[in-house]
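Here is a complete protein record:
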Amino acid sequence: MIKVSVILPVYNVEPYLADALESILHQSLRELEVIAVNDGSTDNSEDIIRKYQQEDSRILLFTQKNQGQSVARNVALEHANGRYLYMMDSDDVLKNADVLQMCYDYAEKNKAEFVFFDREWFSDQGELTTLGVHSTQFVEEDVRYDGESLLNTMLDTCSYNCVVWLLFINRNHLKRLGLNFYPGIIHEDELFTTTLMLSSSSIYCLKQILVKHRIWFSSTIGKKYSRRNMECYLTMADELLCFSRGAIVHKYLRYTLSKVFYTGHVIPYKDKPAIFFRAVKSGYLKYVGLKSILKFFTI
């Protein structure tokens, strides 16, 4: 039986991919598969995967033209056979050799729909950095949380991290939900993780740092904030409101879109009217707030 499917979208990560694969393949939990999807890399990423594949039959490789992380992850999800899923970034590394075994045992013990844990950040140069509040800071281990109350607590404490690489997910639960990633956008984790949380009633926290997340210049987090960032956040809001118009969704959008527009002051002024009028048309200004709107139009 395959206990864990590690989903690994790959795009131009040649300098870091071997470290990621080594951290997976040397896990003490051996009953795993690595589903790598080469999303049109133009460097030697695919060659690296094929080299490891020759040495370890647990690696499955799929290749496609560049279509973004959402499509790559969806392809991997179609082929996953593990009892649990871990969606890892291909430039990250697992903290130690027991991460997946620890998550598996904890999820099984608690019959969790998903487990979440913490991370540490590091740069290309290797130094550790502290960014934001930890996801597990204001919750407890061995306590069953439902998604709405958990999200409410995280929003109140500014500890909500929507990234999927902090989640260890029961695959059957995900299949029952029919949930996948919205194609063609960045910040796709915002929609996926929030929808997953609000669709779950058996969520558990593992108060440990289990993954080291790399920040590098050409990753999504390292790119300059642009009109596309804002457009994708607005698409996320559209889709989330299609999923639910409950009070917690409105609270989440106030939490998120105010930051999106405050940060959006850095985009070129010529792009601002189109973004603003889209928000007006969609009725999103009520989530943004006057302070963020004024900051948005700052030159």
